[in-house]
Amino acid sequence: MSAKFTQLVENAQHLLAHLPWPAEYEKDTFLRPDFTSLDVLGFGGSGIPAGINIPNYDDIRQAEGFKNVSLGNVLTSGYKDSKITFLLEEDKALYTKYKLSSFEVQVGLHELLGHGSGKLFMEDSDGKLNFDVDSTTNPVTKGKVTSWYKPGETWDSKFSSVASTYEECRAECVGIYLCLLSDVLKIFGHTDDTADDIIYINWLNMVRAGLLALEFYSQESGKWKQAHMNARFVILRVLLEAGQGLVSVKKIEGEDGKPDLVIVLDRAKIISVGKPAIGNFLRKLQVYKSTADVEAARQMYSYYSDVNDQDEPKFLHLRSIVMDRKQPRKLLVQQHTYIENGKVQLKTYEATPTGLIQSFIDRFPSSDIQDMVCSLMDKERPYF
Q: Is it the case that residue 378 has pLDDT exceeding 60?
């Protein structure tokens, strides 16, 4: 897998030129990252990602560079569906066969060319701009660029609460947009009919993920609880809005007699309808980001993030069906290492809730927590 990502890095400059924004909106020089595929023994957090782009500070990515890591064994173990919901029967076999392969392509493009692409228009403390304001055109308004990041402003400080999900949406869009390139698919070893299937399943997985994302929307607060899921729902809405029969969500009766849903993607229209729809949306995402146009960005992103029953399909109604069909959350039990008699030992656990809890107890013993709290408080160890 590492060899594929190395080739992706080597071809990045060529592939970036295919993104749907003018050259002025891309970094002057692509800062070649390190891209490594790792098998992880343990990941200290509540969730385990399939890929990571660090650091999560766009101003540092712009000037210093970034690193990418793909967690290979997470891809193979954490992204298998025990039950495939919301797909046509004829799609399920193809989905099962190509989901991991297509997701590998998506992760590589998302992390490297998604998070790693795009230029921020900035003014330094001396009043110097990092772009030519006289010759650079805003491809959305067709006029001159009128806004940029002032001294001391960053992507996170300007876009604040929407920054994370907006950026994840941009990276996901880059992934499904660039996976259409034969040069990309060849890097991952997909040619001929296999390449077409990889494209179809990658797009199908994205629109299905947009429907499943409704699990992470809080109807009570009217807010999204997870950045990536918000992003995928936005993409689903963009593709539904494209019309022409590209994507549809149909209500059916399930085998159990209860309401069910299927999502249908017309693979023959991915290039003719889907590509321009995502291209136009992705261009706006980048232009608003580059020019620090927070108002336009929030207005657009809020529109596509809205979950309501005002228009078809009635998303709040769909959400009720999605919640009724919700599958149990996957729990990944991780191994643990410890030293015994001067040698490193490996401890494994049962794939059960009890095993998961025990693995956390062993990895984060209470004495470690007490020592950490005491060091922060600079006090004697409390009795707890």
A: no
Alpha helices, DSSP H, located in the chain: 2-10, 12-16, 58-63, 72-78, 89-108, 155-178, 182-187, 192-212, 227-242, 275-290, 294-305, 315-324, 353-363, 366-377
Query: Which residues, 6+ apart, have CB-to-CB distance to 21 below 8 Å?
Result: 118, 139, 282, 283, 286, 287
Cα–Cα distance, 253 to 256 (Å, whole number): 8
Collect all residues with Cβ–Cβ distance below 8 Å to 331 and sequence separation of at least 6.
353, 356
Mention every residue, 6+ apart, whose C-beta is less than 8 A from residue 290: 25, 118, 119, 120, 121
What is the SS3 assignment for 299?
helix
CA-CA distance, 92 to 80, in Å (whole number)?
Answer: 13
Residue 262 near residue 126 (C-beta atoms within 8 A) = no
Which residues partner with 365 through β-bridges?
none
pLDDT at 312: 86
- Residue indicated by tokens 């499904």: 176
Question: What single-letter amino acid sits at 379?
Answer: K
Determine the pLDDT at residue 384.
35
Neighbours of 112 (CB within 10 A): 28
Cα distances from 14 to residues 30, 181, 253, in angstroms, run 10, 11, 48
How remote is the C-alpha of 142 from its chain's centroid?
30
The residues that are catalytic are 111
For every residue of 302-355, DSSP letters joined together read HHHH---SSSSS-HHHHHHHHHHTPPPPP-PPPPEEEEETTEEEEE---SSHHH
CB 189 within 8 A of CB 4: yes
Asked whether 94 and 205 are in contact (CB, 8 A), the reply is no
For residue 155, the SS3 value is helix
Domain definitions of the chain by residue range: 2-324, 336-377
- Note the pTM of the prediction, 2 decimals: 0.83
Give CA–CA dist 36/16, Å, rounded. 20
82 closest CA partner among 72, 92, 71: 92
